[in-house]
Amino acid sequence: MKSRLKQGAATGLAVSLTLLLSACSLMQANTTTVDQGVAMQSNQPTPRPLRPANQKVVVGLSIDTLLEERWQKDRDLFKAAVEKLGASIEVQAANGDDAKQLSQAENLISQGVDVLVVVPHNAEVASAIVQKAHQSGIKVISYDRLIVNSDVDLYISFDNEKAGELQAKAIVSKVPKGNYVLIEGADTDNNAHMFKKGQMNILKPFVERGDITIVYDQATKEWKPANALANMELALRANRNNVQAVVAANDATAGGVIQALAAQSMAGKIPVSGQDAELAAAQRIVEGTQTMTVYKPIRKLAETAAELAVKMAKGENVHADKKVNNKKIDVPSILLDPIAVDRTNMDATIIADGFHTHEDVYRNVKGTQITK
């Protein structure tokens, strides 16, 4: 009798285990995978039911700020691309407030978005957004700026180390010897560290030979032009204006740098880099006060991100051909190529792409075009 009871119990346990494994397999089949050509890492969020096929996918966008021209363009392009794909979108902008961004992300999660796209203000703090999204079974895409120390599902950006290299190459080609000032980005933004890494890839050999001396190197809090202005003013005072070149991390900081140089009648005499191809920067380039900018075709970034976000929301496979370590995991990543732009290729890049109009770029310049 005992033998029959034991046999019956064992049979029941086997059936239960079979049912449990079948359920797990079904749950796994309903989750999105990122095709990396390698085994998946255990960073997947809790599975959640997918929306019915006849119900619109909802994409959530949590964006650091809309106070800068660059991010307004990203928002508009991304929104248009998402809607063109038949999905709807909810956008929240924190305007540089970490607590507000976390609260807004929680709001998007509670609304039941199918995927969350995040442009983090603070790369470390935003890891809490990833954790909360995963607890609700929502995948997270890190847009342009990498969320560090997190299990973020996908990172899409430009090759930011290469962007830094393009900046330094442009300035070194103008001034291969002399005193350099580095006006870097916000220390809380992982991209700023990548830009600087790229810059130093180019500058380091010149520094080691003694051709270039970095006389001032400072991060710009919050990426604000006013802080870049204050940093540049301090750099000029500390070196009695004995500065031959400036590597500025983006166009906003370049604007502050050029304002400080203008106050010393040095604008246009000192090469200054930039990034983001803002209209004001494009105008300064053709006017001769800024040397270059790094143009990142954000239409391609926004449209690619929208396509991937909708695919992930639907549970479809997404292919990422690269990985970027975020201090916790190797994040599946898609990195697009940035482009160095100066006076000589302004028309062939920024204007040809429709990023800015010829009329707007050359508004303050006599004639229709500046040539090399």
Automatic annotation (TrEMBL):
It comes from the Bacteria. Residues 1-28 form the signal peptide. The keyword Translocase does not apply. Keywords: Signal. Gene3D superfamilies: 3.40.50.2300. It holds the Pfam family Peripla_BP_4. It is found in: Cell envelope. Its main location: other. GO terms for cellular component: outer membrane-bounded periplasmic space. Residues 63-316 form the Periplasmic binding protein domain. CDD domains: PBP1_ABC_xylose_binding. The keyword DNA repair does not apply. One of its GO terms (molecular function) is monosaccharide binding. GO terms for biological process: D-xylose transmembrane transport. PANTHER family: D-XYLOSE-BINDING PERIPLASMIC PROTEIN (PTHR30036). NCBIfam families: xylF. This is D-xylose ABC transporter substrate-binding protein. It comes from Paenibacillus roseopurpureus.
